[in-house]
Amino acid sequence: MIRHFVSRQFVVFLVTGGTAAAVNFGSRIVYNQWLPFSGAVILAYLTGMVTAFVLAKLFVFKDSAQSMGRSALFFALVNLVAVAQTWAISMALAYYVLPAMGVTSWVREIAHAVGVVVPVFTSYLGHKRWSFR
């Protein structure tokens, strides 16, 4: 299992995923100007997901023989699992864990950042096995 994460492909996935995560994180702050935190997290995740698909197709899994439509379908399915992880972790940290720890500054930002990072490994395996095989 570890061999999947010791490769040039995984490093490029981390870079493109990091870019998409930055888009996700930054857009959540913008969306939060008009939406509640929960909705902003979901919309930001979708914005990051579109960015991630384009970058993954162009730079990470460029040799994939799978059709664009099939890749997009599986990409969306893998990301449904990841968005559930992101949302659950963000909400738990923002509303329960961080307040219980006495954290009062940057609570939403910390919660969302952790929520975005957690699904990196599960998403990579899902995209490698299904989205871009």
Care to give the gist of this entry?
Belongs to the GtrA family. With 133 residues, this protein is mostly helical.
**If you compute it from the alpha carbons, what radius of gyration comes out, rounded to the nearest whole angstrom?**
15 Å
Instruction: Outline the low-pLDDT stretches.
Output: none
How confident is the prediction overall: mean pLDDT?
A: 91
Helix content: over 70%
* Global geometry: globular
Please report the total strand number as a whole number. 0
Order of helical and strand elements: HHHHH
What is the number of domains? 1
What class do helices, strands and sheet pairing give? mainly alpha
The number of helices is 5
User: What's the story with the biggest beta sheet?
Assistant: none
Q: Strand content of the residues, in percent?
A: under 5%
Distance between the termini: 17 Å
Main location: membrane
Transmembrane segments: 12-31, 37-60, 72-98, 110-127
Subcellular location: Membrane
Domain GtrA/DPMS transmembrane: 13-132
